[in-house]
Design goal:
Blueprint: E1 10-11, H1 12-21, H2 28-40, E2 44-48, E3 54-58, H3 62-86
Antiparallel strand pairs: 1-3, 2-3
């Protein structure tokens, strides 16, 4: 999930589209729960944007860097498993 976020503010629908395009399937309610958790954990900044819609972006700092590194490592590991199972 963190890998589909950026430092640029995004609406939930934009995040959902990025997740879907990368092959992840989840309900919007699940996405909102994850975003709420990441916000509580200090990894995502959430604010009310134009017309009251919430926008989300990655927070900044060491904790975010660590979480992103862990997410990349996990993604690479899963990609390696998928490549082995396809051969």
């Amino acid at each position: 999930m963190l890998l589909c976020l950026s430092l640029t503010e995004q609406r939930q629908s934009e995040i959902y589209a990025r997740l879907t395009a990368s092959g992840h399937t989840l309900r919007l309610s699940q996405l909102q729960q994850v975003l709420d958790t990441l916000t509580s954990d200090g990894l995502v900044v959430t604010r009310r944007g134009w017309r009251g819609a919430y926008v989300h972006r990655l927070a900044e700092g060491e904790a975010v860097e660590v979480a992103l590194n862990e997410a990349w490592a996990k993604a690479e590991k899963e990609q390696g498993r998928n490549e082995k199972s396809e051969s």
